[in-house]
Amino acid sequence: MKTDLITSLYVFMLAGFIGFEVIRRVSPLLHTPLMSLTNALDAIAVVGAILLAGEHKSTLSTVLGTIAIVAATSNVVGGFFITDRMLKMFKASRSPKP
Amino acid sequence: MKTDLITSLYVFMLAGFIGFEVIRRVSPLLHTPLMSLTNALDAIAVVGAILLAGEHKSTLSTVLGTIAIVAATSNVVGGFFITDRMLKMFKASRSPKP
Amino acid sequence: MTSFLSTDLIIEITYLVATALFILSLKWMSSPTTARHGVWAGELGMLLAVAGTLLNRGIVDYKWVAIALVLGTIIGVPLGKVQMTAVPQRTALSHAFGALCVTLVGTAEFYLRAPNVPRFMMSVLSMEVILGSLTFTGSLMAAGKLQEILPQRPITYKGQNIVNLGMLAASVGVAAYLVMHPDHLYLFPIILVIPLLFGVMMIVPIGGADMPTVISLLNSYAGLSAAAMGFVLDSKLLIVAGALDGASGLILSVNMSKAMNRSFSNVLFGAFGQEQVAVKGGQETRAVRSATPEEAAGILAAASKVVIVPGYGMAVAQAQHKVRELYDNLTKRGVDVKFGIHPVAGRMPGHMNVLLAEADIPYDKLLDMDEINGEFPQTDVALIIGANDVTNPAARTDSSSPIFGMPILDVDKARTVMVIKRSMGTGFAGIDNPLYYLDKTLMLFGDAKNFVGAIVRELSGGDGHG
Amino acid sequence: MTSFLSTDLIIEITYLVATALFILSLKWMSSPTTARHGVWAGELGMLLAVAGTLLNRGIVDYKWVAIALVLGTIIGVPLGKVQMTAVPQRTALSHAFGALCVTLVGTAEFYLRAPNVPRFMMSVLSMEVILGSLTFTGSLMAAGKLQEILPQRPITYKGQNIVNLGMLAASVGVAAYLVMHPDHLYLFPIILVIPLLFGVMMIVPIGGADMPTVISLLNSYAGLSAAAMGFVLDSKLLIVAGALDGASGLILSVNMSKAMNRSFSNVLFGAFGQEQVAVKGGQETRAVRSATPEEAAGILAAASKVVIVPGYGMAVAQAQHKVRELYDNLTKRGVDVKFGIHPVAGRMPGHMNVLLAEADIPYDKLLDMDEINGEFPQTDVALIIGANDVTNPAARTDSSSPIFGMPILDVDKARTVMVIKRSMGTGFAGIDNPLYYLDKTLMLFGDAKNFVGAIVRELSGGDGHG
Ligand SMILES: NC(=O)c1ccc[n+]([C@@H]2O[C@H](COP(=O)([O-])OP(=O)(O)OC[C@H]3O[C@@H](n4cnc5c(N)ncnc54)[C@H](OP(=O)(O)O)[C@@H]3O)[C@@H](O)[C@H]2O)c1
Ligand SMILES: NC(=O)c1ccc[n+]([C@@H]2O[C@H](COP(=O)([O-])OP(=O)(O)OC[C@H]3O[C@@H](n4cnc5c(N)ncnc54)[C@H](OP(=O)(O)O)[C@@H]3O)[C@@H](O)[C@H]2O)c1
User: What's residue D274's pLDDT?
Assistant: First the structure.
């Protein structure tokens, strides 16, 4: 347990550093899509929910896990979809149309 | 073992990302002190050597550990010392002396 | 987890690769040219992780998993298709969903493991469900206010802060007790219910217009709760994703608080009891100059450099497509048109950029505050469309102003200033704007969409262009 | 490791904090204003980690540890006090020490654990000792060449590359066999000895002037071997430090290879068998204009903007203090003096900056290539001191030149170019420099230190200053 804790703390700390370094450099142009993207990535929690629902250890855990999958999946699908939609809109200027 | 491997791989990967992000942003002014600083930090291997020499599990390990401590400590001491010496030299311009 | 089976190793490796892809995903968001690769990397990472999980030999029944995945997709698709103007509330809603998932998993894990939950595990589990529940209801409330289902004005009562802090303290106290005595299972629902209530009460006193700050903060909380879930499940992937999300929300909140010149603690504690500053009386007596669409069109056509400053009013009026027509028309005439975007213009960070990009305005014409401010002295016309506070020169000059010190767009340095808004009404900060009384300023009263439309008609009619 | 004793937890936490401090240390190196905090953070991290380790309950005997720490300090202090011009060889030497430590620890760990070494453990252990040993001897060789104890010219023979690659392949092969059969203990010395030999042979064919690239690469290898040691000992701190060091060495190597326009693989494989390009005959017939210190002083005194471009010749002549006198004198006369620093000027990345900073030249006057190149067209005099290749315009114009495509300092765009060097001799790349035959170029033949000294004397004598 203790080594697990320490390991998890290392991973959290290192990921936090990366987060600050990387996100500070995201162009302010893209702050709205950034929010929807991190939202979609965060929905990786679906992985835990799938195990809960699939391992079927108790009725409660299966029910909660199933609802959790629905919630997370909708974030994954909706989040990536809208992020891509927004990003597609960002175009650099070209030579003016004829 | 396997979980250890995976955990270590995570740590290595995350640290590698941080390394690239952080070091790409080191001013070219400071590339020489950067080398001596990373050298000193790398000498953290002294920690492993201390355990070897101190745990005294075999004569071989004690001897090798002791030599290893000497090598690493000289890097720690010399590395930080020269880095600081170099950095002290870097001064911004002030109003010209009278 | 310590099995030597190669399936397990494969799963672990998919997670490792997914982690790397998630990091690259955010890295590529640094510029609009690589941002879509970022989305693809994220999608690939997600796909790998989910596929890897489905390989897990502990899964005995795929039925519910499959049903839930399909159902989630069915809900997700329309959430991905909302209008651009509805993005703030969509974001709030998805924070709620994310937090719901985390809370439910945490609850299930507790009941599976109880009463033998080691202390450290119980601590992170409590953190997971407390943060998860308050983010869930808090985000729902925020979405409701943004969608204008709920009343947008702040509802305050005496002692509100004490009640709210008391609830938070109570849930943390119960959690601490559970950490020491995890066998008192009956206490667990308390650390679910109180934070759920707290989430609601936390948002009640905050005005609708302050929601974006709240959303970013909830973004950060959602990330932290997911990271806590990663600690509980010993999933490095989840810890990394949660930490990245947490960092992102925090950075956006800090950016916003800086751009609004509010202290970070004010933001961090959810801007409890933030009060709207009353409009100072008496300014109505001062004279302003107003102009018609024809006059405005004439001035714009004669300019050689125009900077358009959009704000919240452009978003509510949905005027971005008309603005695009104006941009096209002026550009064709050889006028140099740029946009000056303040970091908190509108109601969400980056809001203006997305709306203008939607209307097909090239992103290299969208300059942020620091980039554009140097250009105003050489600008003929600064055309402000539904923006107010972000152009208020009192922030620079009047130390008694509530927004004093807030960085603003220096539109008053342009040769002529034109302001499209419906009235002399105030903006989000509720204060008067001295800009409107300058000699160089022309007020263009009307709805943003209609007024810009009228200008475009004038310009097109005037020379037959289109 | 899985003990529940609180000492162990304390140790683990000191390591965690040390890891964070190490990262901050490198982060603060991003700018000269915060760089010294970086050193302090690194020192604090190191102190914490060592103190934490000494708490370890497994340590039964502190005698040898203490002796070794004292001895290491005694060796370390003079290594920290070397002259600035000796920094390249000092760096090489410290890579050797670092690699020695890692190799010895790896060897000891192997004999402590053998024959029961799990496969994965044996793989990283092999990587640790192979990389460690070749870095050890390779760095010693590099230090020797840089210190000019060893012959600097490349020593080549037929089939060299095949012999070298063969040695590398052999050690990897033996390592692979050991991974499968860790009970064959007698094989272990082979994966120590062959790489030790390989380290020597790898450096033999590389010219002394190419050592900086080699050093950076060895820096990266040293980092990777330390990270491998971290895998073996399950020490996250060591993995992080090693990864940071590895990344640093790699980035510096890539930077250098880009700035020299050599392919990265050329650098990555240690620039095996790199050959010096012969000087093309016949250029001696072309005329150059030379000038005396008096003439040079006159031109400098009349200029209003001077850019000084230092190179390897300034370093070998130890001319930086004279350059500083020149800088002071010109600055006092109101001349705007800046320095243009090419990324590979000199014999080590950042070499020129350290030398000039040592001579007390403010670092904000030291501009790198991209910053200074735009300023040459407005420059009256570009004064080149012991630099050659980095100013060679053939890199821009002559596609048959071996350095074609290498980014250079555009000194030829200045109104007048003055070049201090001893002869018409070539630089590191061994090629002629068309710059010297331009009408605007004046050659100032002489040793850098003496010639700059003579100019300063002229300037001071001429008006009684300095
Ligand atoms: N972006 C964020 O993330 C964020 C977050 C929290 C708070 N805020 C705050 O929001 C404010 C944003 O500044 P801002 O300049 O964009 O907006 P603002 O100061 O709120 O001003 C918006 C202006 O638009 C006008 N307007 C409203 N509807 C309109 C319509 N249909 N047509 C034309 N004009 C219309 C209003 O004037 P009339 O009523 O006269 O028409 C109002 O003065 C700042 O105070 C900021 O601190 C922003
Ligand atoms: N910095 C790095 O990390 C690094 C690494 C590897 C390779 N390199 C290579 O090194 C070269 C560096 O370019 P560079 O322009 O600095 O140097 P360079 O091209 O090697 O030229 C140095 C010049 O200095 C002159 N010189 C030597 N001793 C002198 C003295 N005592 N007084 C005055 N002049 C003296 C020499 O000419 P005379 O003999 O006529 O005096 C020579 O032409 C590049 O080709 C680069 O690729 C650099």
Answer: 45
